[in-house]
Structures are given as structure tokens and as C-alpha cells.
Amino acid sequence: MTRSPLDSLRFVCPTSADAVRWACVLEATAPKPGNVWPGNNQPDLSFADFVQAAEVTAAQFGSATALPFSRLVLQSMQAVMQQCQTNVNLGILLLIGPLHQAECRLKTHDAAAWQQATADCLSQLNADDAANLYAAISAAQPGGMGQVDEMDVNDAPPTDLVHAMGLAADRDRIALNYSQGFVDFFANVLPVLDDAIKQANDVLEGIVVAQLRLLAQRPDSLVQRKYGIALATEVQQRAQFDPFDLEQRFQFDRYLRTGAGTGKAINPGTTADFLAASLYVLLRQSVADSSA
After folding, report:
1. pTM, two decimal places
2. Could you tell me the keywords of this UniProt record (predicted)?
């Protein structure tokens, strides 16, 4: 059996809370262009914030497994904001929340079964769940997320959250996955990270390679929300280089951190959120599951 670079980390993730902690810390540690990593902070966000948020979130997931995921997301977001005083991981929570609840129903960690269980969780959301998730978004005060045509997180929450997410699906990848049962996540994101880690034979290098490949495939939702589709598309185009080319990585990172003329650093944060959620799934898959 071929060993994966993730195998030793899976061994120290016997619980979902452990996997949440490790997924969040690994994602933040990998030196991905434009993102926070050790030694490269942003004015309102530091690597220490991510580590603290990972601990806070893991504690919430470890102590409240019976809660519906919407309530767990809300409580986790409130705890993170109280401890960190900044929105560190809203996107991560919105993605890992339903994945975690779905995992509790699984008999196998097969990706197809996990995707279907996640879709089932989302199909059962009610008005209370919508209120919880809208409250979590409101607590985080995420950059660029306000009124988006029919979906306005400042309005009263809808009774049908999945439908509301569908209205924003063409410009927000998290909304797309809520509206389509995480098909995109399991088909187009998780395999990219899994393959990159195996190809690089290194977890952190694989995370960086996966980030660049995902950015090259489609515009990052956070960049699009904050700066518009034109700049988000430019970032996508500039990411289309050999992800193992270290010099081009450096140039791309410098382009993002100098803001491409916007006056502010460009943080492709949604892509990072998807990587953290993918790490959570990969860490929870057993060696037998992942090699099947």
C-alpha cells in the first residue's frame, strides 16, 4: 500500500475536533500566495489569529456534537470573534459545518457517500437554521458581503436558505455548494488537493500547489466580492503558471500583496476556505478509505 504524506497526521486526528484543528492550522501554515502564513500577516489578520481560531473552533466542535450544524457554526463564530476580535474563519465554518454533521451519519468515509450525506443535511435546513447561519454571518461582518441582488444578509433570514444561496451561486462558491449539495466541492476541489499532496509528496507543498491550480480554474469569490469580477478574473489568469515554479510563485505572491493597483493586498480567501475544508475531509478519511 502506498503511504500518503497525510497518513501520520490522520493518526493524530482520532476525532473530528482534532481534524478541524489540524485542517485550519495546516491551511494557514502553507505559504500560499496572497494568504496569511507564518511571517506574512495582513493588517487585520495574523497567523496567530488563525492558530487561536483553530483552537477555539476545535473546542466548540468537540463539545457540541449533538447540535445542528447551523447552531455549531453560530456558536463557533461568536467564540472566535470574542477571542480574536476579527473574522478569521467564517468561510471555513460554513463549509466544515455541514461536512461535520454529514460525517456523523456516515458508515464509510467514501467521498460519494459523504457528498450525499452533506446534501441530505442541507436539504433538511429549516427557518431556525437559516436564522443561525445569518446570525453567524452578521457576527463575522465579512468584507464585501452585504446586499447581493435578491440575497441580503442584512435582511431577515429566509425560510429557505438553500434557495437563497442559489440566488448568489453564480458569484459565491460557498453559496454554490450550499445550493447544489456540495457536488462542486467533492468533484472539483477535494480531488485537486488530494492529487497535489500526492504529487508533491508533501502536505504543505501540496496545499500551495492546489491553491494555485484552483485559482487558475475560476475567480476567487472573496476577491470578486471585494474588487469585482474584472480583477478576480485577472487574478485567475495570472495564476495560470506551473505551480511548482518557485520564482513565478514569488512574483504572483508579490502581485497579490501589493494589491495590483487597488491600494490593498488581495487575499484569495475563499479558495483558502475550501482548502481547509478539504483538509478536514482528507484527515478524517482512513488510510483504507483514501487508497480504495
Report:
1. 0.93
2. Transferase
